[in-house]
Q: What sequence folds into this?
C-alpha cells in the first residue's frame, strides 16, 4: 500500500480530471465510489481474469488502482476488501480523510474508490443475444439511466443499448444509480438509432417503442419472444427514427390524472411485463 499526502500528486490530480466527461475520454478511465460498489468491482475483476467477465470489466487489469482513506482502513469491515486486493495484487493508495473528500464525488464519502479502464462495447462487436433488450433514446438524467440499467439487470435482460444523446454511461451519478449492475449486464453503444434498429432486425427482435399515443396497450401486446423496448426521455419521448422503425408503438394504460410516467418507472413496467409473459 502506498501513502499519498500531497493534493498535487499525479494520482490525485488524475481522479479530479475523471469527474468530467472530457477527462474520462482523454484518459480512457472512470472511477466508482463506495465500499459495496468497489467490492463488486474487485469480485467481477477476479471473474474477468477467469475469462467470464461481462459488462464494464473485461479483465482483472481493468482496475487500475484503488484509493482508501485512513478512516476506511480503521473500520474493521474494510478487512475483507483489503485482503481481496492483496490476493489479486491490486494497487492500493492510502490518503488522509480530507484528501479523499477533495476527490470524492459524494457528499458523505465512504472512503474508498476504484479507478477503472473504460470499456465501451459497440453493437458491431456484439454477438447474438436473445430475450429482452432495452434501447435508451435521449435519456439525459443520470439517475434514470442508472436505474434502468439496474432494472434490466434485475430482470435478466440480454443487454442495454445506449444511443447518442444519452448521458455519459461513465458519469459518476449514473454509475452509482446502477448499484453495480454495470458489471453484470452488457451495455452497448451505437452510432445512432438506425444502427440499433438494424441490430434488432438482424437478430429477430420485435421493436416496441414506448409512446403516449401508442395504438397498443402494453398489457395486450405479445412480448413473449425476443423484444426490444425503446425508452425515451420524460421530456421529449422517443425520437422520429424510433417511431418510424418500431414494429409496435405501445402505451402504458393510465387511469389517473398524471400525463406521463418517469422514464425509469415506465421502463420497469415494460420490462417486467415481458418477464411476466415469459413465466
A:
Amino acid at each position: 500500500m502506498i501513502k499519498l499526502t500531497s493534493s498535487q500528486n499525479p494520482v490525485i490530480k488524475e481522479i479530479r480530471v475523471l469527474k468530467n466527461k472530457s477527462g474520462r475520454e482523454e484518459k480512457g478511465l472512470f472511477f466508482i465510489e463506495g465500499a459495496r460498489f468497489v467490492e463488486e468491482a474487485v469480485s467481477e475483476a477476479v471473474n474477468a481474469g477467469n475469462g467470464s467477465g461481462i459488462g464494464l470489466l473485461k479483465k482483472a487489469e481493468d482496475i487500475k488502482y484503488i484509493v482508501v482513506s485512513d478512516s476506511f482502513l480503521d473500520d474493521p469491515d474494510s478487512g475483507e476488501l483489503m485482503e481481496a486486493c492483496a490476493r489479486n495484487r491490486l494497487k492500493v493508495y492510502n490518503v488522509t480523510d480530507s484528501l479523499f473528500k477533495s476527490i470524492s464525488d459524494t457528499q458523505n464519502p465512504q472512503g474508498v474508490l476504484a479507478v477503472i479502464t473504460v470499456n465501451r462495447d459497440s453493437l458491431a462487436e456484439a454477438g447474438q443475444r436473445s430475450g429482452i433488450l432495452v434501447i435508451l433514446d435521449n435519456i439525459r438524467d443520470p439517475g434514470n439511466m442508472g436505474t434502468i440499467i439496474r432494472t434490466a439487470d434485475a430482470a435478466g435482460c440480454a443487454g442495454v443499448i445506449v444511443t447518442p444523446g444519452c448521458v455519459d454511461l461513465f458519469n459518476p451519478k449514473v454509475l452509482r444509480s446502477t448499484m453495480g449492475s454495470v458489471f453484470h449486464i452488457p451495455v452497448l453503444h451505437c452510432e445512432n438509432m438506425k444502427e440499433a434498429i438494424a441490430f434488432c432486425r438482424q437478430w429477430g427482435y420485435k421493436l416496441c417503442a414506448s409512446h403516449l399515443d401508442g395504438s397498443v396497450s402494453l398489457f395486450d401486446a405479445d412480448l413473449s419472444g425476443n423484444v426490444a423496448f425503446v425508452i425515451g426521455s420524460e421530456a421529449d419521448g422517443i425520437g422520429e427514427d424510433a417511431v418510424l422503425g418500431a414494429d409496435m408503438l405501445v402505451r402504458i394504460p393510465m387511469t389517473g390524472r398524471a400525463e406521463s410516467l418517469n422514464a425509469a418507472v415506465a421502463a420497469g413496467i415494460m420490462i417486467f411485463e415481458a418477464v411476466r409473459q415469459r413465466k
